[in-house]
Structures are given as C-alpha cells and as structure tokens.
Protein: Fatty acid desaturase domain-containing protein
Organism: Melipona bicolor
Amino acid sequence: MFGSSTSLHLGTSHQSTTEKASNQTLQSQKSSIQPKYEWKIVWRNVIAFAYLHLGALYGIYLTFTATKLQTTLWGIFLQVCGELGITAGAHRLWTHRSYKAKWPMRFILMIMQTVAFQNDIYEWSRDHRVHHKFTDTDADPHNAKRGFFFSHMGWLLLRKHPDVMKKGATIDMSDLERDPIVFWQKKFYLWLVLLFCFVLPVWVPCYFWNETLFNSWHHNLLRYASTLHVTWLVNSAAHMWGYKSYDKNIGPTENKSVAILAVGEGWHNYHHVFPWDYKAAEFGNYNINITTALIDFCALLGLAYDMKTVSVDVIKRRAKRTGDGTRYSEDEDSQSHGDHHSHEDMKWGWGDVDMKPEEIQEVDIINKSD
C-alpha cells in the first residue's frame, strides 16, 4: 500500500524519493477531487407545491362550474400585474439595471412583484444575476443541462448546488443593498406576501361581488400557480427550444410562445447576449412585449429614464458573427474560423465589472437623465 511503513524498507534512496513523490502526487490528487454533489430534497417545498397544484387544478374545475366571471377576470388582472412586477421590476430594473425608475414607479413595481410571490426582489435578482453570469453550469441555480423539469421547477425542490453559493458570493449586489425600497420589502416580505398575494386577492371577490370564500381561494391558487409556470418557462423552454439568432454557442433561445405568455421575456438568446437592453429583445413590438410598452409609457410620464438599448448595426454585427443565421446571414469568416462564445464571457447586466469598454460604448441610452 502506498504510504505504509513497508515503503521505508526499500533498498535505495532513489526508490524512497520516488515513493515520496508518488505519495505527494496521490495526496494532491485526492485533495483536488471535489465531493460528489448529492440531491437534498426540500420536503417543505415539495409539500407546498403539491398542495398548490392540487388546489390550482380544482380552481380550473371551479372556473367552468361555479366561479363568477368577475373572479376570473380579477385573477387574470392579478396575473398580468404579477408578471409585470417580475419582468419590468425584478428582472429588467433591479437585476439587469437596464433602465432607472423614480421611487413611485419602483414602489408600485415592488408591490406588483410581491403579488407574484417568487421570493423578495433581492433574492430573485441575486439568483438571476448568478444565472446570467454562469449560465447552464453547476453554478446556475436552474441549470438547463440538468433537464426540463429541474430548470422549470425542480431546482426549487432541492438544495442549491454548492457552486451556486460559492460563485454567487462573487456577484456584486451593493446597488440593491443601497435601495431603500428593496430593503423595506425584504424586511417585511412575509407580511407583504400574505397581504398582497393571498389576503387581498381572496377578499376582493368576496366583498365586492359576493364570491364564496372557497371559490375565491382556489381561483387565487390557480392564478398564483399560473404566474409561476409562466416565469419558469423562461428558465426551461426558452433554454431548450427555439432559434439562436444572436449566439449559437450558448443555451438560451428565441421562443415566441414563451415571449407571448411571459409578456415579452421569451427572446432569450438576444437577452443573454445583450442583458442590458431594457427591451430584452431586438424589437420593441408591443404586441408581444407588453413589458416594454409599460416601461415606455412610464417614460412618457417621467417615471422611467436612462433606458439602455443597442443599435441595429451592433446587433447585426454580433448576429452575423455568432448567430445561427436565422435572423442575419453568418459572416464567411465566422463560418470558416468559428467564433465560440461561452459562459465565461457572460455578463449579468449593466454594471457587471467584466463589461468590455467597447460593449459600454455600443450602448445607446434613451431618455437620458441630466
């Protein structure tokens, strides 16, 4: 056995030296081996999601048999509000810093994001910045390479991979730590969620049009579950199915169906290439990008400003260089030599320390502040 006392009886100093070197090599190899990652199920979440989905299924049944039309419309309104709180608020404003907003807009978006109940803004943004920085690696909280179910919702049923915690600690979150609205929501998040995700949504139908508490409760579970699945589709479906018009070497795709459901968040290949673009897409088509319409409307009211975007020329050059040719034809040079882009060159958004000077210079700012 290596390292046993029998090695001391070898005849020559050369053999002894060789043995020591071998032992040192073995020890260094052992120390470099990472412990195997094992799944640790979060049973509390498993039980909670099981109840939520059973309640949501019953909510579907009640929608067609007992629930009043007003309650259904109220649920749709809340779902859109919650989705916009995620897309315009937690995602484009707080995570990617793709635009700035004055405090009334930030406060309203915070309330809307609370309606969606997908963790507080700080935690949501931290996980999403880590996702962009380390896309489809073990450090990605919802690594799509681990399968559709994991990237869709399974990641919430397991303890995070150690790399998520380790590399997540390298992400700068100082901007959100200085935001009083983010801090206030984080401090009172449990009470805010109870009020805006459950109590008020259930109480309004009961009080204003005499909906039964039973029907209102289950319809609210349906609304909440639907909001969750729409958001999760961006992490799963938009990382598996669709075109890679802007960078064929990364996982995220352009998925129109997800874009429609997620009020503009399905143009995911573009978004991962240009995460600082407030439109999260090449086009600002309001029909399939309601989030952009909201931000532009708020800009007209003077509430949103410093909206960052990218010129058509910059987009074309990048798509021709690294895209799959579905949007713009590939350059002959990129076809012959290859232009590989990896997660190591990814940025989480405006303010990432790894942004290159040319990337900063290529950004156009709309409604620029003084």
Summary: The mean pLDDT is 88. Residues 69-95 form the longest helix (27 residues).
